[in-house]
């Protein structure tokens, strides 16, 4: 059964709540300032932030579901709910990137709006706020091995790029107004196009990782090699017939088939299995379940090839 201690800590839940609250505040702030001072880049960033509110809510919901204990319908737990939440964040980021690119390209063919110092200040506040949120959320996400929280941190990073583009764009427009250089006003949409590409790349990275987990992709070869070393450190293990491991949200599941001396008793086999399981879990905090199957091993038949019975 799934270990309930693998659930999310108070720190991770607090991090996602802070992200949700921050996104709501920044969305309202950017939209109001964008409408009042007619700043296209702030309006685009504000609508982007509105998508972040949905992404944060999805991450919070998926994290709550993922910590539910295993039940009859979900014997391996609900860890993948968090991965689904990451997929939703990836989709929202992708749509936001397309929207930012569209608005930026359209702005190139329109009369540039008059820049505002209030709009610049709002963009700076957003940039600093989001950067702090990115550092904080990523730190908690990695510590808790939370896919949803890490995806939210990357969402904050995308906002850092968008806010930086707004700062650069509005700043260039202000310089253009001050020194009579009209072309500088188009620095805003050009920066927006660059940001849209960066945000879209983030969406692809998050989406690919989520799909790999949902499609039961194996953990890295280095991790499998580390598990193999632990198994081979138990002298009673004569052969490793199969070793598989996969991520299941914020925890890892390991499947092992090993060969042991065929005349062992059930109790001796159970003791060996327990020792291997304990060693793996002691050295890998994110491993929740280790399933071990024992095959009989005889020196004269040690061909290294599995039979159907194995």
Task: Kindly list the characteristics that best describe this protein.
2 domains, Alpha-lytic protease prodomain-like, elongated, disordered N terminus, 310 residues, Alpha-Beta Plaits, disordered C terminus, mainly alpha, 3 strands
Describe this structure in words.
By secondary structure, the protein is mainly alpha-helical. It folds into two domains: 4-214, Cation efflux protein transmembrane domain (Alpha-lytic protease prodomain-like); 221-301, Alpha-Beta Plaits. Helices cover 65% and strands 10% of the residues. The chain contains eight helices and three strands, in the order αααααααββαβ. The protein has helices at 10-36, 40-66, 80-107, 117-144, 147-179, 187-214, 221-232, 266-283; strands at 239-247, 252-261, 287-297. Strands 1-2-3 form a three-stranded mixed sheet, with helices on one face. A hairpin with a 4-residue loop joins strand 1 (239-247) and strand 2. Helix 3 runs antiparallel to helix 6 (187-214). The longest helix is centred in the middle third of the chain and has 33 residues, at 147-179. The protein starts with 9 loop residues before the first helix and ends in a 13-residue tail after the last strand. The model is unreliable at 1-7 and 304-310 (pLDDT under 50).
Please summarize the sheet with the most strands: 3 strands, mixed
CATH homologous superfamily designation of the largest domain: Cation efflux protein transmembrane domain
Low-confidence stretches: 1-7, 304-310
Q: Tally the helices: what do you get? A: 8
CATH topology of the largest domain: the name is Alpha-lytic protease prodomain-like
